[in-house]
Amino acid sequence: MFKYYFEQIQGIAIWPIISLTIFFMFFIGLIWWVVKVDKSYIREMKNLPLD
Amino acid sequence: MELEKFSYDNRIVKYFSIATVIFGVVGMLVGLTAAIQLFYPIFNFDLQYTTFGRIRPLHTNAIIFAFVGNAMFAGVYYSMQRLLKTRMFSDLLSWIHFWGWQLIIVAAAITLPLGMTTSKEYAELEWPIDIAITVIWVVFGINMIGTILKRRERHMYVAIWFYIATFVTVAVLHIVNSFEIPVTLFKSYSWYAGVQDALVQWWYGHNAVAFFLTTPFLGLMYYFLPKAANRPVYSYKLSIIHFWSLIFIYIWAGPHHLLYTSLPDWAQSLGVVFSIMLIAPSWGGMLNGLLTLRGAWDRVREDPVLKFMVVAVTAYGMATLEGPLLSLKNVNAIAHFTDWIVAHVHVGGLGWNGFMIFGMLYWVVPKMWGTSLYSKKLANAHFWIGTLGIIFYALPLYVAGIVQSLMWKQFNPQGFLEYKNFLETVVQILPMYMLRAVGGSLYLVGTFIMIYNLIKTAREGDFVANEYAEAPALEKRRIVGGHWHSVLERKPVIFTALTIVAILIGGLVEMVPTFLIKSNVPTIASVKPYTALEQHGRDIYIREGCVSCHTQMVRPFRSETERYGEYSKAGEFVYDHPFLWGSKRTGPDLHRIGGKYPDSWHYYHMLDPAAVSSGSIMPPYPWLFEQKIDTSETVGKIKALRAIGVDYALNYEDIANQDLNLQAEQIAKNLKDQDGIVVGKDAEIIALIAYLQRLGMDIKVKDN
């Protein structure tokens, strides 16, 4: 039933693919950054509440 | 570098803390009363203002928005100033926020017992209060963003991100879910109907749990737990991943509250998948909290603050594992509509929120009064009584939920329901309800011990209203480069915008299809709008909070179609503003109640349920027999409903009251014929009977 209505929208198939790509890229980027990030920066952030 | 002198505003934190404690006690007392009403209906006091249906929303609202809400603000105002090394943006805004919020709470405490309710769970407050909430929330937001902008610390610590996410998401949730068309000052109809209303409501309900009860408290955990343990969080990297994945995924999981209902299957499946995925970020957060204490567990033995926080984080872990499991369709088929869900939310509420709040208060009060805790012994006593309270609360309800669910589903060898009478399954679990009340009482006793301890602590110290501090000003130099995420942490506005994007995607994907295709809910030709009298009856049903205990959603299980009748179809609810599917079956489902009993049965049953069904725990509703239907509102109601798409015949409002009278006369006549009952046709009970007799009749095949 829903398929029918989705088919009415032009180029609907691209939307979920774009969404998934954005979602995926963001997290890949995030993990990449987390792995690569400068240790001293992390140490500084960690200790913020304790200052 | 020159050091700037400034002071932290402790007074606002003190006021929010006091409000937390006061409304915590009120909310718990109301909850305890509601718990007792379930096994001693006499405690409904035969008063309309104190029946279960009206005080249950009072309990949930008081706990969520007054107890947890005020605690959240206290914690945010305390930690935010210190993490950003600045006083709050504006003292005036802080105080508008404080008093505005308390006024809203008072307004809720007055209107809910009066029966002014939208009936949408955790969003029961009527439209003028909804507007006030929006205004005050924006004041909070401006104050928070302003504070972030004038900070003396270049980077935002992870707790701040959680606060930002809380602010933007709650704003979006509240506004979208509160679209309603006003009829009078304290009566409105939800803009959405039926399936759409259900989807929006549980998108809201689920994410209110996520962004009012979870994210701000994770922020508090990331600040207060390291503070109390005097060591940095276990992994800051993990906290970054925790944050983004949590807010990304949470927003999608709402439909798991509507499994096996008339909600389209794709939306249900989406809800299940994302709920399972939620285990990862939730447990990431829990482990990050617990592992912060690695190598310091000996301190947990000594320090009551850490004890409370360890149990809080553990309860968070249990509730966030249980939640996804409950979203599996096969588990949900057993647990939904039972006390299992009540147990689940209270592990979160009593354990995670409550214990986090207690831990925070035990830490903050001595700090702000410049002293140490009056009695560690009492705090330890509170800890143990509270923990026992949680156990005595949750365990009996797990048993009750599972036992009752299995009884509902039990067939005998002849293929009939073993417990045909719903009441049998209720009577079976009453002892569990009693134990639950014991658990709740223990928890409350613990809270009183804490209050005594904190007052004594405050008396021993001197309150530091303005805590002086100094820090170098944030240089205005332009930092180029750094990685994109550290840039993000320096740019609160971009950060906020990204957070909004993250939470909007999920909401939009779920809701847009359902709205675009209004016609997709298969219409059923025989489904007609409610008559004027039935609509009045429906509003009485809403006012009395019947939805607290009675669902209107027959799920497609043999055990349910056997007990109640044909399962519920999406097309049957197109005129239901708001939907009344309910979330808990303390009494039987009512979607197919129409035509099941004569009018006189309903009459006697509403007058004294226990006289009609021996052992019933439903309270009597004597006032329905004295109060008159307010026909002056009929026209306004019909017009409002027409404006939001109810398909009334042309000019129906002109003849609505005539129509109402005719139908009411017929019911009064039926009552007289059936059992010689004499009652005025303008009594509210007539309207309620009209509504109950209408339920489920639209698609019933009529016998000739």
At a glance:
The complex is a heterodimer of chains A (51) and B (704). Chain A is mainly alpha-helical.
Describe, in plain words, how this protein is organized in 3D.
- The complex is a heterodimer of chains A (51) and B (704).
- By secondary structure, chain A is mainly alpha-helical.
- Helix content of chain A is 75%, strand content 0%.
- Chain A is built from three helices and no strands.
- Chain A starts with a helix and ends in a 5-residue tail after the last helix.
- In chain B, helix 13 (339-368) packs antiparallel against helix 14 (376-409).
- Chain B has 24 helices and four strands.
- Chain B has a two-stranded antiparallel sheet with strand order 1-4. Chain B has a two-stranded antiparallel ribbon with strand order 2-3.
- Chain B is 64% helix and 3% strand.
